[in-house]
Amino acid sequence: MITEWIGKRCFNAVHQRNLVYNTCWEDPRLDRRALDLGPDDTVLVITSAGCNALDYALQAPRAVHAVDMNALQNALLELKMAAIRTLEYEDFFEIFGKGLHPNWQSIFHHRVRPALRGSDRAIWDRRLDFFDGSARRKSFYFRGTSGFFAWMINGYLNRPQGLRESVQEILSAETVQEQAEIYDARGVSEQLFSKPMRWVLRRDTTLAMLGVPRSQRMQIDHGYPGGIGRFIQDRIETVFKKIPLKDNYFWRVYLTGSYAPTCCPEYLTPQGFAQLRSGLVDRVTTYNNTVESFLRVHDAPVSRFVLLDHMDWLYERHPDLLAAEWQSIIDRSAQHTRILWRSAALDVDFVDPLTVHANGTHVQLGELLRYQKELAAQLHVTDRVHTYGSFYIADLNGVAA
C-alpha cells in the first residue's frame, strides 16, 4: 500500500505541474488508415504534444478539437500553431525539428508571442530556455518530464564503450536485416539493458516521468511474462530488430534529441507546413478540459474520437468517471462514429461491461460497439512506436444524435 501511495502521489505531482509530453507517442500513420477522415468529419483528440492533432488537420476534416486537462500540453500545440502562422519553414524546423534555435528569444518576442493567447504567452514567457539551447538540456526534446528521461537515456548511451556508435549505426541502417545484424553483433542488448537499467525501468518514479500511471504498470506486470521490465526490453528490441528505423521519427528524436528532414512528423515537412499555413491549421482548436466536460458543452456532433491510452488511467480508480465519459461520447456522437484507443494491457476487459444509456434504455457499452478487429490487428503490428499492448478501432452502432 505504501508503494501504491507513493506511485500515485509521484504521478499526480509530475502531471499537474509540468509539460509531460514534448512529442506524441502514437503513430498517426495507423490513425490515418483507421480514422478514414473525410471533409465532413469532426475529430476529438486528447492533445498530448499536439503533433497528431496537426496530422489529422492535414487530412482536411471539418474540425479538430484538441482536449487536455494539462494546460501546458495545449500551450505547446498553441505555440506550434502560432509558429506555423508567423514563421518561415526554415525557422520552424529549427525550433521544432532540431529542438532549438539560437535566435529563439527574439523570434518568440517579435513574431510568435503576439499570435498567442494571453494565458499561453505567460506559460512560454517562463520557459524561454526550452528552445534557445542555453540550458544544460539543450534540445526541447530533452525538456519536460518525459524529455528529462530521454536526456538521461542519452547520457547513459555514452557510458558503455561503443554503445552510442552502435545505436547511431542502427539508425543509419538501410534495411531491417542490417539493423538486426548490428544489434546482435555489437551486443547492444547486454549493454543497453544492464542490471541497473532494468532496475530503473521498474521504478514508479521512472514510469511517472514517462507518463505511465501505476494502473498501466500493474496491467503489464499481471499480464506480461516477466512484467514491465521484460515488456519494455522486448518492445525496444523489436523496434531495433524488426521495424524499419529509416522513417521511425519517434525513436530517432528520443535517441538523438532531434528529428531529421527525412525522418520527422508530417507537420514538420515542407509540404505539411505549407498545407497547414494555407489554412488547415485554423481547423484546430484547443480546450483545457476533460473529454466529458468538453462534450457536455459542445453543441455539435463529433464523428471521430482518438482517446489515446487515458482510459487505462481512469478505470482502476475512477470507473464512474470512465462510464460518464463514454456516456458523453454516446450523447454527442454523429452518424458513423468511429473511436480509437490504445492500452498498455494486451487485452482490455473494462470497456464493454460499462453501463450506459442509449436509445431509451440502459445497456452494456459492448452492445453498442462494433470492433474492427482485423484492421486493428493489421495496423498494430506495423506501429513504429511499438510500446502499447493493444490497439482498438470501434464503431458506435445506432446511437447517433
For the residues shown, what is the average pLDDT? Answer: 91
Strand content range: 5-15%
Radius of gyration: 21 Å
Number of discrete helical segments: 21
Largest sheet data: 7 strands, mixed
Q: Which bin fits the share of residues in helices?
A: 40-55%
Biggest sheet, strands in spatial order? 3-2-1-4-5-9-8
Contiguous low-pLDDT stretches (5 residues minimum) are 1-14
Find the structural class using helix and strand composition. Answer: alpha/beta
Distance between the termini: 44 Å
Any idea what the shape is?
A: globular
Count of strand segments: 9
Order of SSEs: HHEHEHHHHHHHHHHHHHHEHEHHEEEEHE
What does this structure look like?
50% of the residues lie in helices and 12% in strands. It has 21 helices and nine strands. The strands form two sheets. Strands 3-2-1-4-5-9-8 form a seven-stranded mixed beta sheet. Strand 6 (355-358) and strand 7 form a beta hairpin. Helix 9 (163-171) runs antiparallel to helix 10 and helix 18 (291-297) packs parallel to helix 20 (319-332). The protein is globular. The termini are far apart. This is S-adenosylmethionine:diacylglycerol 3-amino-3-carboxypropyl transferase. It comes from Stieleria magnilauensis.
Question: Which key phrases capture this entry?
Answer:
401 residues, alpha/beta, disordered N terminus, S-adenosylmethionine:diacylglycerol 3-amino-3-carboxypropyl transferase, DUF3419
Layout of SSEs?
Elements: H1 2-17, H2 28-35, E1 42-46, H3 51-57, E2 63-68, H4 71-86, H5 89-96, H6 104-112, H7 118-125, H8 144-157, H9 163-171, H10 176-185, H11 188-192, H12 195-201, H13 204-209, H14 214-223, H15 227-242, H16 249-256, H17 270-277, E3 284-288, H18 291-297, E4 302-306, H19 311-315, H20 319-332, E5 333-343, E6 355-358, E7 361-364, E8 369-371, H21 373-380, E9 390-396
Parallel strand pairs: 1-2, 1-4, 2-3, 4-5
Antiparallel strand pairs: 5-9, 6-7, 8-9
Helix pairs in contact: 4-7, 9-10, 18-20
